[in-house]
């Protein structure tokens, strides 16, 4: 079946070259290769910084396609979407336009780690992204396959240093030249698809892999180190063959929260959102997996797969005897299909059907498209700089799954940053880096270029040491202002709105700071709030807002001061108040690090047994390099600011 799906000429079209808007130039500032989540953000970001840009992708109809799950956001990932939006990227607005079920994950925890998430209507998402791209001024879109990169021979003055000068496309008689190229080929580089015992070349079902010339140039001509990773996707099933009476319904949030700072609402009405359904695997599922292992080539390979989104085969092999959760997720507002999240599999199609029917709610299920796996090459990202430029090739940037990450959000975030820098360098502006103290995008890129990957990398809030400050509610304050004033990728409209919010928040916070009363007086005004009367000093309204159960609305009714002008920011003010002490403490720690750059670090210490909180990777780097000073340690790749804080505290304690 896989072979049929892959090789039928009507499904796989031979790569051709067709422009949508004509190909007016033979030379561009930036060429972006690939119209997935990284490529679409890269192409639009490059134009926003002023670069004439060409996007070349295999099929225009798959621009913005969701290759796997029909959802956006989640814990850590929602932060990335908000940050991409704050830098004027497109995926957040697309999510608001296509979401059919919005919910905030992690709500029982603090707002710093809330995970904004939406189930998407696949067609609407794709339509939004395509419309956005085809209407972007300074962007030309070309349907075609890039066969190879044009790379200069190494510079005799700088051995091993190349320069990219453009690309060559399949069927293209002439090369197309550019100052920068962004490669975002996803799972397509030397891609192979797996189903049962059948293996075929491909980047995604229905799409051929990237041309061999690209891999050859990256590996052989430029000498980049590459690795191999894998992932997989579940079968898509017909909704009308599921017995919903045997599922648990999971309702969306009553009030959807938009991803984009520009949107007050999402497209669908709250009451029209669709539910998801929860079911669980049975011992029969495990039996089918075990009985079919010999028919399952993908699972027999050593290649590393996504740890946090494992196939059902990996789950069964790792945790025998357990029942696993499966979410049945809508594929669209009017779609007849469901996506069974948690059942990614590469068994032969008949065994896939057998496996699904072992679950009571799926006893009569029918499959529309079977699940399959993909294995692909990635480029070890330690060979990139924080701008996502390849260290040894001037003008060549990589973003997305090609850098060893997994997920749309991780791809979009890198794509935006690579596009910004490809555009800036092409128009003779310096490349920029985002720090991990400022953004999750900074954390993502710092982890990739500093530590590299051994398995598909996905974002989590636990990766960000400064998560109290890097919240989904404040990405506009962290990034939109800088995005306009320094980076140049943010529109004046968004900038003005971010400045308005910033100024109003500052005014509101200082107004709250200036109102003080004794604890008994506060208790009189806020009757049901448990404010400790043992406090002898005066309490400001800002401190009172930090109390559980106190809202900004309560303060506006309890106080005569005119603070109700800030009611539209009430949720943000509450969050700012709660996190303020923690963020101020972190700020003081960062300033202390800057002041103590020359502090000597002990040279005879065993970093592996130091009784402080350091990850194994950090211990290994410190042990290998043995930096002389705290400042030297801060500049080592893979050493996080949190590790530096712990190191600083340790040296002071033991002096
Ligand atoms: P993609 O979205 O893959 O886009 C690459 C684009 O480049 C495509 O449009 C392709 O046509 C184009 N292209 C490639 N080569 C060329 C060339 N030579 N010339 C021109 N165009 C080219 N993510 C998860 O988070 N969880 C999962 O469980 C998961 N499972 C997946 C299962 C499968 C089978 C696949 C295919 C992907 C899965 N993903 C999963 C990954 C998710 O789809 C990616 O993380 C995300 O799409 C990466 O975005 P990208 O822009 O890097 O690449």
UniProtKB/TrEMBL annotation:
Cofactor(s) demanded: FAD
Pfam families: GIDA (PF01134), GIDA_C_1st (PF21680), SAM_GIDA_C (PF13932)
Annotated tRNA uridine 5-carboxymethylaminomethyl modification enzyme C-terminal subdomain domain residues: 577-649
Domain of life assignment: Eukaryota
Keyword tRNA processing: yes
MF GO annotations: flavin adenine dinucleotide binding
The entry's keywords: FAD, Flavoprotein, tRNA processing
GO biological process: mitochondrial tRNA wobble uridine modification; tRNA methylation
InterPro entries attached to this UniProt entry: FAD/NAD-bd_sf, GIDA_C_N, MnmG, MnmG-rel, MnmG_C, MnmG_C_subdom, MnmG_C_subdom_sf, MnmG_N
Cellular component per GO, a single term: mitochondrion
Family: Belongs to the MnmG family.
Protein name: tRNA uridine 5-carboxymethylaminomethyl modification enzyme C-terminal subdomain domain-containing protein
Native species: Albula goreensis
